[in-house]
Amino acid sequence: MIQEFLIIFIINYIGIILTEVFNLPIPGTISGMLLLFALLYFKVLKLEKIEKAGDFLLLNMTIFFMPPSVKLIESLYLLKTGLLKILFLLVFTTLLTMVVTGITVQYLIERKEKKYGGSIN
Q1: Could you tell me if 54 and 5 are in contact, meaning their C-beta atoms sit under 8 angstroms apart?
Q2: Which residue has the higher pLDDT, 99 or 114?
Q3: Residue 51 contacts by C-beta under 8 Å, 6 or more apart in sequence?
Q4: Which of 10, 30, 9 is nearest to 19 (CA)?
Q5: CA angle 103, 105, 106 (to 5 degrees)
Q6: Helices (H) and strands (E) in the chain — how many of each?
């Protein structure tokens, strides 16, 4: 299982290096995960090579969220000053996302119905 973790960490580190070299606007860890996804999707890397490590990480995911949660609780006083603004933005962006998604889906369904004729089931 150590070899599986090593594969995941090396791919993640390559993503970090690529982000630094090409000055990408996304975090290096995200580009590393995208690289891992691409390698798995195009079957360059077999899932069996990292499956046990991935299962372990998924089973223990809550442990990895503890430090950010503790930091959030420590910084709660900062959130209290802008709590109404934060709640408004959360509600507004959620509703906006739902509306845009609904309009997009309706458009795509209508487009497909025109292309193939009749309703789609």
Answers
A1: no
A2: 99
A3: 4
A4: 30
A5: 65
A6: 7, 0
Specify the pTM: 0.59
Query: Residue 44 corresponds to which tokens in the numbers above?
Result: 């360059």
CB 14 within 8 A of CB 21: no
Domain ranges of the chain: 1-64, 78-121
Cα–Cα distance, 68 to 59 (Å, whole number): 18
Question: What does the pLDDT look like over 48-60, one tens digit per residue?
Answer: 999 999 999 999 9
Long-range contacts of 40-48 (CB under 8 A, 24+ apart): 45/7, 45/11
* Tokens of residue 81, six digits: 């000053």
Give Cβ neighbours of residue 84 (< 8 Å, ≥ 6 apart).
none
Report which residue type is found at 74. Answer: E
Return d(Cα 60, Cα 56) in angstroms, integer. Answer: 6
Altogether, the residues listed in the chain come to a count of: 121
The four Cα atoms 75, 79, 80, 81 give a dihedral, to 10 degrees, of: 120
